[in-house]
Design goal:
CATH superfamily of chain B: YVTN repeat-like/Quinoprotein amine dehydrogenase
Strand content of chain A: 15-25%
Number of strands of chain B: 28
Distance between the termini of chain B: 25 Å
Radius of gyration of chain B: 19 Å
Number of strands of chain A: 27
Helix content of chain B: under 10%
Order of helices and strands of chain B: HEEEEEEEEEEEEEEEEEEEEEEEEEEEE
Shape of chain A: globular
Helix content of chain A: 25-40%
Largest sheet of chain A: 9 strands, antiparallel
Oligomer: heterodimer
Strand order of the largest sheet of chain A: 15-16-11-8-7-5-4-3-23
Shape of chain B: globular
Strand order of the largest sheet of chain B: 3-2-1-28
Largest sheet of chain B: 4 strands, antiparallel
Structural class of chain A: alpha+beta
Radius of gyration of chain A: 24 Å
Strand content of chain B: 35-45%
Distance between the termini of chain A: 48 Å
CATH topology of chain B: Methylamine Dehydrogenase, Chain H
Chain lengths: 628, 371
């Protein structure tokens, strides 16, 4: 039986009860590229139509009763031209109790624009009235601000020249437009020079690309339309390069209870399916994903990005930079850089950041994941972490009082936050180094720390798990061999899973936790393709023959010659070395790899695949395509 | 901008207002913004009329800023009426202004109480008409405002506490600029602002790195009390303008008797737990109360020399957001996950009040101008 996990995204909770979704129910699609551009376009349009048909047909409500339509269903019906009077009536009803923040703003913008010449004047007026009378809360995260200002920008353009008292902000249309534009240009500038704080999110990608699609289509200002288009390409290029068979891999600034282990169960997978067609869509098309469909046919992912997602040689290394969500306090820096490494092969992927504090609640620091023919219900991942929970960490990024904070967040979509067996989050006491498909994670946990132990996740989907006398644990995940070396004694515990952000209690889905209570600790993982070895025994022999020295005192320190012949040395608190050379993180670019390249501060991304090249240049607001 | 014409503060009729005049907070209910404004209009009209006829109006008005929507996260539905409430002498709470879960503080222009400021998640909101219309005053680069204060000696000057510093307006929030000269590059997370009521431009800021003082309208700041972590509250005694109290995260409670220039620790108050706020009793100079999540309610009736645990009668966990004392000397405690509690005998006994489920971010005792 397929297991599905709720995303932390509220809308998804409703969407999961949806009716039949052809691609969701169907066998997994082929992962390779469709060479013919017209066929590729036809496939894309067919997927878009599938979403629109599902939503227009009642979506999660599974009904044609207009009284049960939500704004996503209404959007689809407007596109389909179906029961427009009923849609108008329902909009009027919904606007009697408008929402109060960015998650309501962009759907209402969608209806306001789609319905311009379709809905009744009364329905359109009801939306306009809501934007006058109901205070909208801007929120406190990067995705909140993006949704808020993209929505405010478009509404201010839709209703220009209106006075201050015509808006909940108390500002005129022109003031709202200037304010929104100011933020959006600033945000795009930051993203294209030092990277996002919410990088590689499993679910929040929708909160960015959906309103960006609106901007790319509906903005009157051609410069802002172009900015929308550039940002869409930017986001989807990063999605393409960070996915294997459509499933997001490696570290995430924000993940959720489900997608941290069932890696496919993420809105990122919905966009992979929609744009690239090489993984199944998520249940209910991830809820919010419905809002992309009405305009999706106006945006087609460029071939160079499509090829990166679907047509790659076996093995490439991508090293990028991002940044930490702002620290208001308890830090010497506001937004320190994040250094990301992703090594992706056909059978598996290895990804990491350097550890330390990232997002206060939902980071995923490193993992080894493997390809599954059908990713649905699978937990194809292996990693370890220190399950850190501290009000000081949350206080650094939020403005709440300290003591109720930890318990508070467990009621607000992060139920495992204060659980000793959690598998989500970053820790100031974890440091990570990755070279290709080798990861070393070291831990130096102060004795008085809440949850003074580390957890290693061992999936139910691992095969041939063997605890070897050498101290290594061997296993096979799909077509990947995995070697996991705990650096301190451990015990096994049953993995308990929160099946949604709002789950009251954990359930057992299979899988185990390797729990080690030693404060000085570490994990080594080496991955390889099964095709590289005759069998698991041969892989074991190769791993146990690797020169390995480690100590845990006074701080954890490892010297290892990897399966790829690299001599790496990594000591907690020190810069790692490879073949005697220290890693110079200061020289890392914003993107660096065979497919994506950008300089820090450059505002320009070069996307390359084979002879294809596209340059997104925010300095000139141009897109340049070349065939070399 | 010309100074606005002084207008007496609105007062509340001693009788409980009829239900039609606006919702009281015993059972806060969701309502439409349009209706909220209508209620405000009625309330303001009633208040002004009442002011004209009141025989002996109290010297203070009493407000709370409360988030009543439990477990609200951005994106979830707001199902209760949140924000600023004002208590009338009969004990009813009346909602003022916008339904906003993120309001942290409220301040008024002493010349014209219709000029209202609230700090909130979005930043700073201002109303010029008693809450009927609001304007967001800050740009996108100011967010999650923690506190707002108006200088009573220079009422065009508005101070805004931000998680990354302090912003100031000299034109009733028409424009806001950052004024952080003297604040540390890191450590300027600002939780609370308190203006010295006796001298224009003299303002204290409770920051992550300590208490900072400006005496020139925020042109320059200097540290007068370094602390290990955030200063959560600052209060000036209504009885002695030189007496100030500071509540901190890990540095305990501190007192200054020279107008905030030097500070000493109050030994009788434990410093092992964060202290969220402190309040003076305007009716009795020696009475103080403080609120803390870990300690609940502590009171002093000898000017802070000794403190007594006053949690008997409060729900068992007695996790207290804040305490407040109204103009009649009644003590209030905002208890997490519970309702507001009130004590007529300064904490010896308690009974439930209104605002069920609320988190009070601020109690405000606002002096009324002389008639």
């Amino acid at each position: 039986m397929r297991r599905t996990f709720f995303s932390a995204v509220l809308f998804t909770c409703a969407a999961l009860s949806g009716g039949a979704q052809p691609s969701y129910e169907a066998p997994p699609p082929p992962t390779g590229p469709v060479a013919d551009a017209s066929l590729r376009r036809a496939d894309y349009f067919r997927r878009v139509d599938e979403v629109l048909d599902w939503a227009a047909g009642g979506g999660s409500a599974k009904t044609n009763d207009p009284a049960k339509l939500d704004l996503a269903m209404i959007a689809a019906r407007i596109v389909r031209g179906r029961d427009l009077p009923g849609c108008s009536q329902r909009v009027i009803e919904l606007m009697r109790e408008p929402g109060t923040g960015p998650f309501w703003m962009f759907p209402s913008v969608c209806i306001a624009y789609l319905g311009r010449d379709r809905l009744s004047p009364e329905a359109l007026a009801s939306i306009r009235t809501a934007w006058r009378t109901t205070r909208q809360i801007r929120g406190d995260t990067e995705n909140h601000f993006a949704m808020y200002y993209l929505s405010l920008y478009l509404m201010a353009e839709l209703y220009p020249d209106e006075p201050a008292d015509a808006w909940y902000t108390g500002r005129s249309s022109a003031e709202n437009l200037a304010e929104a534009r100011g933020y959006l240009v600033h945000w795009m500038d930051e993203t294209t020079t030092v990277g996002q704080a919410e990088f590689n999110t499993t679910n929040y990608i929708g909160e960015y690309v959906i309103p960006l699609l609106f901007l790319a289509n509906w903005a009157k200002d051609p410069a802002m339309r172009q900015r929308g288009h550039l940002m869409l390409d930017w986001f989807f290029a990063e999605l393409a390069v960070s996915t294997l068979n459509g499933v997001l891999r490696g570290p995430n600034s924000r993940v959720d209870e489900g997608s941290v282990i069932e890696r496919w169960q993420a809105m990122a997978s919905y966009f992979s399916w929609l744009l690239f067609g090489h993984t199944p869509p998520t249940a209910g098309y991830s809820g919010w994903g419905l809002y992309f469909a009405p305009l999706a046919k106006n945006y087609e992912v460029p071939e160079v990005i499509y090829r990166i997602a679907t047509d790659r040689p076996d093995g490439f290394l991508q090293r990028d930079r991002a940044r930490v969500r702002r620290f208001w306090r308890y830090s010497d820096e506001t937004s320190p850089p994040v250094y990301k490494t992703n090594y992706l092969r056909h059978d598996y992927a290895v990804g990491s950041t350097r550890g330390g504090r990232i997002d206060p609640l939902q980071s995923h620091v490193w993992d080894v994941t493997w390809a599954e023919p059908d990713p649905r219900g699978k937990h194809p991942t292996m990693f370890s972490l220190h399950p850190h929970a501290a009000s000081e960490i949350i206080q650094a990024s939020f403005v709440f009082y300290p003591e109720p904070m930890i318990k508070g967040v467990t009621f607000e979509g992060k139920p495992s936050y204060d659980s000793p067996d959690k598998v989500m989050g970053s820790s100031p006491y974890e440091q990570v180094f990755q070279d290709l498909d080798t990861v070393i994670a070291l831990y130096a946990i102060p004795p008085d720390t809440r949850f003074p132990h580390i957890n290693g996740f061992f999936s139910k989907d691992l095969a041939e798990v063997t605890e070897d006398a050498s101290g290594w644990i061997f296993a096979r995940g799909g077509r990947a061999y995995l070697a996991y070396r705990p650096l301190a004694p451990y015990r096994w515990e049953t993995y308990r899973h929160y099946s949604s952000g709002w789950a009251k209690a954990p359930v057992e889905l299979g899988g185990r936790l390797l729990t080690s209570p030693h404060l000085k600790n570490g994990t080594l993982v080496q991955a390889a393709s099964t095709a590289e070895f005759r069998d698991l025994a041969a892989f074991k022999a190769a791993i146990t023959a690797l020169p390995l020295r480690f100590t845990l005192e006074p701080v954890p320190s490892v010297s290892l010659t990897t399966l790829r012949g690299k001599k790496i040395a990594f000591t907690y608190g020190q810069t790692p070395t490879v073949d005697g050379r220290a890693i110079d993180y200061g020289r890392w670019k914003l993107f660096e790899g065979p497919y994506l390249n950008a300089e820090v501060g450059g505002r320009k991304l070069t996307i390359t695949h084979g002879r294809l090249e596209r340059i997104l240049d925010f300095n000139t607001l141009t897109i340049t395509d070349r065939v070399q | 901008m010309p100074a606005p014409r002084p207008v007496p503060l609105p007062t509340i009729n001693a009788k409980r207002p009829a239900p039609a005049a606006g919702p009281t907070a015993a059972a806060p209910a969701r309502r439409s913004p349009a209706r909220a404004r209508s209620c405000l209009g009625l309330l303001a009209g009633g208040l002004l009329a009442s002011a004209l006829g009141a025989a002996t109006p109290p010297a203070y008005d009493f407000f709370v800023c409360a988030n009543i929507n439990r477990n609200y996260v951005v994106g979830s539905k707001i199902v209760t009426t949140n924000g600023v409430y004002r208590r009338d002498p009969a004990g009813a709470w009346h909602h003022l202004g916008a339904n906003d879960t993120g309001i942290t503080a409220v301040a008024f222009d002493p010349r014209d109480p219709r000029v209202t400021y609230t700090s909130a998640l979005n930043g700073l909101w201002r109303s010029l008409d008693g809450g009927q219309h609001w304007r967001i005053c800050n740009s996108w680069d100011m967010t999650e405002a923690r506190d707002v204060a108006v200088d009573p000696q220079a009422p065009d000057h508005v101070y805004l506490a931000l998680p990354d510093g302090i912003a100031v307006s000299t034109d009733r929030a028409e424009t806001l600029v950052r004024r952080e000269n003297g604040l540390p590059a890191r450590g300027k997370y600002t939780q609370v602002l308190q203006v010295d009521r006796t001298r224009a431009g003299r303002v204290f800021a409770g920051c992550e790195a300590g208490v900072f003082l400006t005496e020139d309208g925020a042109q320059t700041w200097r540290c007068v009390l370094p602390t290990q972590e955030t200063v959560y509250d600052l209060q000036q005694s209504p009885h002695d303008s030189r007496l100030w109290l500071a509540m901190t995260h890990r540095s305990g409670a501190c007192r200054s008797t020279d107008g905030g220039l030097t500070w000493e620790k109050i030994a009788a108050v434990p410093s092992t737990y964060p202290l969220y706020n402190v309040t003076f009793d305007v009716t009795t100079a020696q009475r103080l109360a403080l609120g803390s999540w870990a300690l609940g309610v502590l009171t002093s009736e000898d000017g802070g020399r000794t403190w007594t645990d006053r949690n008997a009668g409060l729900p068992a966990a007695h996790h207290v957001w804040r305490v407040g004392i109204d103009p009649a000397g009644r003590l209030y405690a905002s208890v997490a996950g519970e309702t507001l509690f009130v004590s007529a005998d300064f904490g010896r006994t308690w009974k439930p009040d209104a605002l069920a489920g609320s988190q009070v971010n601020k109690f405000l005792l606002l002096p009324r101008p002389a008639p």
